[in-house]
Design brief:
By secondary structure, this protein is an alpha/beta fold. It has one domain: Rossmann fold (3-Layer(aba) Sandwich). Helices cover about 40% and strands about 10% of the residues. It has a 6-stranded mixed sheet with strand order 3-2-4-1-5-6. Helix 3 links the parallel strand 2 and strand 3. Helix 5 crosses helix 6. It starts with a strand and ends in a 6-residue tail after the last helix.
Length: about 250
Amino acid sequence: MVKTLILVRHGQSEWNEKNLFTGWVDVKLSPKGIEEAKNAGILLKESGLKPDILYTSRLSRAIQTANIALESADRLFLDVKRSWRLNERHYGDLQGKDKSEALNQFGPELFKTYRRSYDTPPPPIADDNQFSQFGDERYNNIDPNVLPKTESLKLVIDRLLPYWQDEISSQLLNNKTVLIVAHGNSLRGLYKHLTGVSAEEISEINIPTGIPLVFELDDDLKPIKDAYYLDPEAAAAGAAAVAAQGQKK
């Protein structure tokens, strides 16, 4: 029996709109992001896909997107589970910085390394930085030694996979249709795990905001065909916009 996994990157956030590195900073959706979330739910409803359970990160922009999308899809009744392991990549000391200013500061090569390399994290954030998550109550029940102060995509995958293996996989193996609403890098990390693309290939893959990406998996949770977006044309345009971030002046 085919296992269905649906991934949705949150709609545009207030900091996406401002072209700032966000990471674990908790910001809300922009007006455009709210519309993208509504559209994600409409696309789900029109597709006939019916998620049985929802997973989100602990960040507001993913939670908002999930709630708005489920309301549009008439599935607000779903059981919901949240985990910090689905959070966006922690951008360390880059959090709160303007991407175009960071591009000028670091130069194109180092900027791309910090932003897109597989295994090179930015400098860590200090606990007293205004954009640090030190003392954030949403993580009170988590060992502070486990929580990151910077991450590469590889480190995102390392903290994501235990949750995938211990929690999410079991729902799929029980033939539940799973919806994950999370972030560009946590979803890219899961994409790499599922598809087996190389570190070089994943650096060029961009996931657009607010457009459901559907995986059909076999009993070993391997894709039986290429994943597909419910709105391919909009997804291509959205992915190009993500790729261009940092070039805005």
